[in-house]
């Protein structure tokens, strides 16, 4: 019990580090998005997003191995087997180098063919787009080789360091924006080169830190065939799931390009910026919880693992809802305030992307639980196949009804189906009952959402679209969601804990 309390405190502390990081990262990212869009223009911004998406399609190889790396490193830390940890780390480094080389080969063959024959890019920007494509491949390779070192940092739960590195990266990207405004005859090419340079710098920084800090972890010559087979088998089954996720996201971006051109990709790119900024608040909390889910399973503490799954799912939803709801209510005003020129479809794309974000994040604790068990075959087959089906279904729908919003609406339906599939598999693996999941997670979230939405939506329908309305609706919706969560969204034990904390803070202030 004491150990669980200590773990909960560590989760809370790491979450604070990650949120401090996120506030700065989000502010800078939103600012740089505005300047980059204004500097590059709508078409070039769309080109950068969709060309990078072609390269990202090949990273399903890396995504699968990254899941395996994080799982095995965290698992061995949970068992405190440092000899095995070195073996896992060394294999991870070697495998990621091989993956980077494979992506280079795929990018310069299949990817290059697709880029030149299938993409909808204006002829006068083809030369610049080719530069973007090449440097996107190089940047992708560098990011892949960072994975084992990032996994060491997050598995050791050094979230303060992770936060500092993220802040360094976002400051460098801010400097890129200033350079972009001041210099460069072709700013799209310059942007791609500078983003690659930042990736190289962060790769070196990560490696230097891990070598200096984790002295008990180092690269060794490995001949442990069993560990290699275990890691590759795990990654092999993850491959289908990761391919599904990446092809679903980037495949839809490419379909939008084929059917509607780069201007619609610009609108999607902006909606993804908003989605990622909002989603990162929940991801920060998840990053602090995920290692504990793995370590709980490794230590045989299944009951605590179940509590973490339902409670973290609930808190992630509340975090996303309390941020997303005011944005959805004021999307037109926010976009006009943020961007100089708002591309067509951006407003509806942002709203639908935020709904997708809330649904997608709910699956992460269940995915972590499945990864911790190591029995991922059934989970990955069902999830991966469902995700891969999204692309032909979206293609068919856009072919019949060429309306861009339908791509997002189709993904929302698939998100609901995927969540049902995940719960079905985890139910059989760790005996997480459907009733427990409904009572501890689904019911409080539905109740809180329904109660919170009614009054702000009614006000929105009668108030004009201006700054006063934006301020009033934002403050009011946050207050109503907060009150609803406190009264109907958390358990009596959690409510008492919050009340006691508030009382203790008041007493400290009184006796200072």
Summarize this, please?
By secondary structure, this protein is an all-alpha fold.
Descriptive notes:
With 512 residues, this protein is mainly α. It has one domain. Helix content is 87%, strand content 0%. The chain is built from 18 helices and no strands. The protein is globular and about 55 Å long. The two termini are 33 Å apart.
List keywords for this structure.
single chain; 512 residues; mainly alpha; 18 helices; globular
Overall, the morphology is: globular
List the secondary-structure elements in sequence, H or E: HHHHHHHHHHHHHHHHHH
Structural classification: mainly alpha
> How many separate helices?
18
**Backbone CA Rg:** 23 Å
- Strands, count: 0
Helix content: over 70%
Q: Indicate how many domains the architecture comprises.
A: 1
Largest sheet: none
Query: Uncertain spans, ≥5 residues at pLDDT below 50?
Result: none
Strand content bin:
under 5%
- What is the terminal separation in angstroms? 33 Å
Mean pLDDT: 80
């Amino acid at each position: 019990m004491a150990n669980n309390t200590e773990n909960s405190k560590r989760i809370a502390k790491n979450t604070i580090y990650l949120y401090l990081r996120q506030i700065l990262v989000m502010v800078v990212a939103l600012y740089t998005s505005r300047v980059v869009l204004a500097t590059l223009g709508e078409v070039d911004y769309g080109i950068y997003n969709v060309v990078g998406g072609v390269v990202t399609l090949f990273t399903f190889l890396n995504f699968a191995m990254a899941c395996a790396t994080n799982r095995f490193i965290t698992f061995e830390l949970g068992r405190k087997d440092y000899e095995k940890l070195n073996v896992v780390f060394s294999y991870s480094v070697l495998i990621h180098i091989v993956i980077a080389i494979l992506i280079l080969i795929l990018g310069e063959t299949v990817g290059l063919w697709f880029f030149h024959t299938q993409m909808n890019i204006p002829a006068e920007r083809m030369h610049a787009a080719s530069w973007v494509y090449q440097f996107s491949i190089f940047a992708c390779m560098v990011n892949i080789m960072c994975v084992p070192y990032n996994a060491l940092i997050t598995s050791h739960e050094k979230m303060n360091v992770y936060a500092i590195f993220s802040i360094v990266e976002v400051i460098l990207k801010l400097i890129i924006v200033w350079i972009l405004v001041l210099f460069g005859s072709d700013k799209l090419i310059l942007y791609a080169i500078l983003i690659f340079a930042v990736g190289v710098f962060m790769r070196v920084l990560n490696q230097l830190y891990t070598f200096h800090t984790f002295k008990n972890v180092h690269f060794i010559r490995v001949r442990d065939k069993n560990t290699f087979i275990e890691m590759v088998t795990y990654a092999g089954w993850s491959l289908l799931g990761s391919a599904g996720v990446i092809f679903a996201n980037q495949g839809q971006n490419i379909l939008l390009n084929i059917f509607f051109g780069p201007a619609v990709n610009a609108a999607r790119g902006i909606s993804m910026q908003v989605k990622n900024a909002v989603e990162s608040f929940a991801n920060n909390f998840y990053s602090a919880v995920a290692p504990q889910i793995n370590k709980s399973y490794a230590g045989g503490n299944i009951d605590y693992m179940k509590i973490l799954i339902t409670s973290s799912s609930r808190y992630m939803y509340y975090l996303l809802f309390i941020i997303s709801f005011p944005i959805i209510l004021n999307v037109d005003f926010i976009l006009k305030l943020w961007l100089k020129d708002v591309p067509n479809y951006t407003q509806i794309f942002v709203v639908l992307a935020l709904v997708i974000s809330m649904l997608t994040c709910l699956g992460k604790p269940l995915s972590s639980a499945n990864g911790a068990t190591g029995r991922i075959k059934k989970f990955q087959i069902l999830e991966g196949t469902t995700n891969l089906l999204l692309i032909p279904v979206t293609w068919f729908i856009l072919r019949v009804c060429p309306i861009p919003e339908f791509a997002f609406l189709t993904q929302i339906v698939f998100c609901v189906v995927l969540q049902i599939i995940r719960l079905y598999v985890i139910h059989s693996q760790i005996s997480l009952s459907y009733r427990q999941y409904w009572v501890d997670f689904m019911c409080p979230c539905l109740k809180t959402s329904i109660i919170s939405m009614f009054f702000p939506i009614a006000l929105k329908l009668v108030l004009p679209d201006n700054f006063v309305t934006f301020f009033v609706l934002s403050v009011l919706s946050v207050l109503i969601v907060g009150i609803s969560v406190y009264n109907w969204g958390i358990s009596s034990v959690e409510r008492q804990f919050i009340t006691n904390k508030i009382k203790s803070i008041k007493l400290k202030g009184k006796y200072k």
